[in-house]
Recover the amino acids of this structure.
């Protein structure tokens, strides 16, 4: 992961009891230039728990990738 050279967005639910927030933090810190979006009130299935909000948060990153 430290050699990954593509735009990376880490999206994590802080209430995830399976893949705890420390994992998301470590991924974002390990991948050069990675961005981290943290949802303090969501858990393991954040894309199902609040799909509209998750997509809205990811949209700028996805849009930027479409232009590169």
């Amino acid at each position: 992961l430290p050699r990954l050279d593509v735009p990376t967005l880490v999206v994590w639910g802080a209430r995830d009891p399976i893949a705890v927030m420390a994992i998301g933090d470590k991924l974002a810190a390990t991948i050069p230039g990675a961005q981290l979006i943290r949802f303090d009130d969501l858990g393991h299935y954040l894309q199902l728990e609040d799909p509209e909000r998750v997509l809205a948060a990811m949209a700028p990153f996805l849009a930027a990738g479409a232009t590169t």
Notes: The chain has a mean pLDDT of 95.
